[in-house]
Fold Class I SAM-dependent RNA methyltransferase.
Amino acid sequence: MSYIELTTPCIFGVETVLKKEIMDLGYTIKEVEDGRITYEADELGICRSNLWLRTAERVMIKVGDFEATSFEALFQKTKDLPWERWIPQDGKFWVKKVASIKSKLFSPSDIQSIIKKAMVERLKRIHGVNWFKEDGAHYPLRVFIKKDRVSICLDASGEALHRRGYRTLTSKAPISETLAAAMIQLSPWNKERILVDPFCGSGTIPIEAAMIAMNMAPGLNREYEAEAWKHIIPPKLWLRAVDEANDVMDTTSKFSISGYDMDYKVLKLARENAKNAGVDHVIHLQERDMRQIRHPKKYGFVITNPPYGERLEDKESVMALYKEMKVAFDHLDNWSYYIITSFDDFERYYGKKADKKRKLYTGMMKANLYQYFGDKPPRRK
Ligand SMILES: C[S@@+](CC[C@H](N)C(=O)[O-])C[C@H]1O[C@@H](n2cnc3c(N)ncnc32)[C@H](O)[C@@H]1O
């Protein structure tokens, strides 16, 4: 195994969760930035990270990192990077995405073509050829420039990691799988405690919670770009990572996770998704209006993503719904509530100030996670 620096983008605000996930896999954190974590790993780390990181958007190999304020510097410094370590002679490589913040270089198309030219220049010299057929495996690159510091990364995931493979069907406003996993892990919930999502829609929060409770790797049901990079990661390492994940999965553990929704059509999707994820037998999904929420036990958790009124005409009904939520939740004895919404004045309509509030930004959405803490259950003697 050799030293490989990996970098993973995540939703802004969940860096602490992702950092813990990476450390739990046994890797050393090198840098934590807003929406991005860089860490030290090896070839097996690429497989494990893809399979296990619940809150990472993708796993990338950091090929290089340098300052550049001119296209000439970008060209020269890209050419100096050891591309031959990563890209074989038949590899197809291109800059898939450029993001530039507060930097002199910002034109994506120019940055894309200069980086490609510099790579071709170096690889031509190394391989002693003038032309690359590029008919082999794919090597998509992602480039991030922040305050003139350029990071060039190879995307080892391909499709974003929130695409676990189980959610083929979604309701109108589904929460992303990574955000659902982040909400759950930002709370102190564990499988000993009850979890209810009264607005479960396509089931994302209960499904993610069940996978956490069973210690099920979220990425077992999909493929990764880096599986084709056989000169970097021998196929036996992928098999090893999958075997490890299957070995530690706990299929016998008992827990109480439920999802309710008033829309039976949406619940059908949730059931289908839960089945795809392999957790349909361990979660309870039921048609129920949030106003009917009741539970005989104390100290449970509501983790949920209620409607937030996308359209202007929905806003009023959402305000009324938030008020009714508080009335309904007051039937639960000493529970904790973790409610995510992008509706700005949530606390005002819900009628209670959150104990803690956390901003979470995704590319498209700015939301707040409102946290209301119940007591912990007394320790068993
Ligand atoms: C933002 S969506 C939840 C999306 C879900 N987290 C997912 O990943 O698909 C809100 C859900 O609340 C449901 N809903 C709205 N009013 C409700 C009520 N009074 N009781 C129960 N469910 C309700 C809607 O049917 C919708 O599925």
About this structure: The first helix runs from residue 15 to 24. The pocket of S-adenosylmethionine is lined by residues 170-171, 173-175, 198-202, 204-205, 261-263, 266, 289-290, 305-307 (CB under 6 Å).
